[in-house]
Every structure is written in C-alpha cells, then in structure tokens.
C-alpha cells in the first residue's frame, strides 16, 4: 500500500530537497504575481491610466489565474502533478519576458492574462504535490514551511522592485520574472507523486517512484525503514475524479466553505496589496521610491504571519488558526477605517497588521484544502479553492477602483475589506472540519 509506505518514512533530506525545488518554483510565482503592483506607479503615467483602467490592469492577471487554477487542477488529476508544475513555470516565465519587451498596452494585457494562467495553475498543484509526499504527523508544519516561500517571493518582489523600478524601469523587473525557467532541469529529476500514480491505476510506476524515494532515504540515513503498517481507511480508488463530485455528498459542505474563505481572504489580501503603492503615490503624494519601500514593510509583516501560522497550525488545528486570523484581520481593518486613514504612516502600520493575519490565512488554506479531498480529485478540490481565490483577486482591486472612481474615501475601502474578512471568519468557524494529525486517506472518507 503506497500510503502506508509514505506514512512510515522519516522526515529526510529527500523531503527537504523536494520542498526546496518545488518551493523555488512557488517563490518565483509569488515574485511574478505582485510585480504588476510595484510597476503601476510607473505604468500609470506611461499609459495615462484612469483608476478604472488601473483596476483592470490588475484584474486581468487575476482572470488568467482563475482560468489557470481551474484548468491546472483538472490537468493535474489527469496528466500528473509535476507535468502541470513544469508547464506552468515555463508559461509564466515566458510571459513575463514578453511583458518586459512590449510597449503596447494591449499586448501587455494579453501577456499578463496568459502569465496569470501559469501563475494560477502552479501554486495549488504544487501544494497538492507537497502534501501528497508528506506523512500525517506534522504535515501542516512541513507543508506550510514550504508555502512560506511564496510570501518570501512577494517580499523579494517588493524589495527588488523598490531598487529596480526607480533606477532601471519596469522592463528590467519583468525580465527578471523569466529566471524560473532555470529550474526546469531540477524539476525533471523529481519523481511523480506515488499517491497520484496509485490513484490513476498505475501501480508499477507508483511502486517505482516509491522505491526511488525509499532508496535515497535509506542510503542517506544508513538504516532500514520500519515495516509499513496497514491503514484501515486507506482504500485505493482508481476512478477518475470529476468536478461535479466536489459538490456532492460530504464534499459539498467542504467545497462551499473553502470557496467562501478563499474568495474572502484573497479579496482582502490582493485588493489591499495591489493598490497600496498607487495609494501612497496618488493619495499621500509619496515618491515612487518611498511608496515601494512602504509596501515592503507590509509584505514583510505578512511573511511573519505565515511563519507564525506554520508553527502553530499542528498544535491549534486548522479551524482555529484560520478563524482567529480572519477575526483579527477584520478587527484591524475596521480600526484602520475608523482611525488610520489620515496619513501614509498610519495606513502603513494598520495595513501591515492586517497583512500579518490575512497572509497567514492564505498560507493555511493551501495545506487545509489539499487535505479535504481524496487523491483522485485532490487537485480538482485545490483548483476550485484556488479559482475562488482568483475571483477574490479579480474583484478586490475592481472594488477599490470603483470606490475611488466615484469619490469614495479610504475609510470606505478598508471598512469593506473588514466586513468581507469577518464574513469569511464566520463561515470557517461554523462549517470547517478539523484535519489535524489525520492521514489523507482518513480525511477523505
């Protein structure tokens, strides 16, 4: 039984290697995803963009991510996790290069949309792969310490943008977004998920992948692995997963709950993060250089939240961590709306507090979503969650653009975000199921 063989593996250098390689891909996903936000202070005067046009420049990438999340999950359950990760990386890297060399707004938007397809497909499928090669004990911490690489990519994007954009322009920044293609050789050397191979009715390939992993671990540890212990709930299902199954039986409640929290968390996160550099320059008249440095601090606060939730999630559980983080994010945003919109510094401080909590939720959702579905439809479940998040990515910036376009205040913007965060907290608190310390096969029943 593949699952039993995976559960008896000690944490090893092989696991770390796989986490680092796939994590590097996710790092560049985060790096590429927010480059648009840090380029907007330069792109707005270049193309004379109105608030509505700015919102669509941001949102077009989110629309691509929505397509990528749905399509990537569907493909990953049919052609394999690694194949989709490799294809996604090549796509978003190539499109970033295209964005660097075009001077046409129309072509830029086309490249941004297609880049979004690659960005949207990679993260949920990568999280699925990492979750499937990990045993139940401390799975949350292991997966989330991998996922922390995504906000590190966001921080790197902010830091590099703050130095590159004012000095060399946005073209150099987008050209750097093509660097992940250098990771392709390392990805080709990783084995496919043994759980996925077994679920697809390919036992010989699953056994070969599993043997390859076990051999590398035993050679490095210099000792024999313990005998696999049969798992009562581990029944291999080789049927093909379908999207409709995510909305049937026990999975209906899980899917609707996940869609709601993914959409609300990313509505808040991306709506704020994508607009902050522009708000600093347009509302508070900061220089481009200062606006980008302010944005770095907000992203660093989010990174801290990701590390904290990674350390706590196996002790407190998924439900408590996600609910509490969304409540605290909501409270921070309401306080920002009530007292903190008078200066750039107060917006920075309060938005950094909100980022700390909402980034933690975004990270927790990757491990939690992958746990709630069986192997045959795990990537589909992650795709639906990721797609809901991409809807939040699309709608959040558009809502900010709409509010500002009709003369609304920053207080209104942050109050709306606070309300959405509170709705997400209530839904998770009421409808979420706990998965801590359970095998993936047990949870899927």
UniProtKB/TrEMBL annotation:
Its main location: membrane. It comes from the Bacteria. Pfam families: Sugar_tr (PF00083). Gene3D superfamilies: MFS general substrate transporter like domains. The chain crosses the membrane at residues 20-41, 53-75, 82-101, 107-130, 142-165, 171-190, 256-276, 291-313, 320-341, 347-368, 380-404, 410-433. Residues 18-436 form the Major facilitator superfamily (MFS) profile domain. It is found in: Cell membrane. It is a multi-pass membrane protein. Keywords: Membrane, Transmembrane, Transmembrane helix, Transport. This is MFS transporter. The lineage of its organism: Bacteria, Bacillati, Actinomycetota, Actinomycetes, Mycobacteriales.
């Amino acid at each position: 039984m593949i699952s039993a063989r995976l559960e008896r593996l000690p944490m090893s250098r092989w696991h770390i290697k796989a986490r680092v390689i796939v994590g590097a891909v996710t790092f560049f996903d985060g790096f590429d995803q927010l480059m648009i936000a840090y380029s907007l202070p330069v792109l707005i005067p270049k193309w004379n963009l109105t608030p509505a046009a700015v919102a669509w420049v941001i949102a077009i990438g989110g629309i691509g991510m929505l397509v990528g999340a749905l399509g990537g999950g569907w493909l990953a359950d049919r052609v394999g996790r690694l194949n989709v990760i490799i294809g996604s990386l090549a796509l978003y890297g190539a499109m970033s290069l295209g964005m660097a060399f075009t001077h046409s707004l129309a072509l830029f938007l086309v490249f941004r949309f297609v880049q979004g397809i690659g960005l949207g497909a990679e993260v949920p499928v990568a999280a699925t792969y990492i979750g499937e090669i990990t045993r139940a004990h401390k799975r949350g911490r292991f997966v989330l310490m991998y996922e922390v690489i995504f906000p590190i990519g966001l921080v790197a994007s902010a830091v590099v943008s703050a130095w590159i954009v004012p000095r060399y322009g946005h073209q150099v920044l987008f050209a750097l977004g093509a660097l992940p293609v250098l990771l392709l050789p390392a990805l080709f050397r990783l084995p496919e998920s043994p759980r996925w191979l077994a679920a697809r009715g390919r036992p010989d390939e699953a056994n070969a992948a599993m043997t390859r992993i076990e051999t590398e671990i035993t050679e490095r540890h210099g000792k024999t692995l313990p005998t696999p212990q049969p798992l009562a709930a581990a029944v291999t299902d080789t049927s093909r997963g379908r999207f409709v199954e995510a909305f049937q039986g026990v999975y209906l409640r899980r899917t609707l709950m996940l869609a709601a929290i993914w959409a609300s968390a990313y509505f808040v996160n991306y709506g704020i993060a994508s607009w902050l550099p522009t708000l600093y320059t347009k509302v508070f008249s900061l220089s481009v250089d200062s606006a980008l440095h302010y944005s770095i601090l907000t992203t660093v606060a989010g990174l801290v939240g990701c590390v904290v939730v990674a350390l706590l999630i196996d002790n407190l559980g998924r439900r408590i961590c996600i609910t509490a983080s969304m409540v605290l994010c909501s409270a921070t945003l309401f306080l920002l709306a009530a007292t903190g919109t008078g200066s750039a510094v107060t917006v920075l401080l309060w938005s950094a507090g909100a980022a700390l909590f909402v980034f933690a939720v975004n990270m927790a959702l990757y491990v939690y979503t992958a746990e709630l579905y069986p192997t045959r439809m795990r990537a589909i479940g992650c795709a639906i969650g990721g797609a809901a998040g991409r809807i939040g990515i699309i709608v959040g910036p558009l809502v900010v653009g709409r509010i500002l376009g009709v003369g609304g205040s920053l207080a209104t913007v942050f109050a709306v975000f606070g309300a959405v965060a509170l709705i997400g907290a209530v839904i998770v608190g009421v409808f979420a199921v706990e998965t801590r310390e359970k095998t993936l096969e047990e949870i899927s029943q």
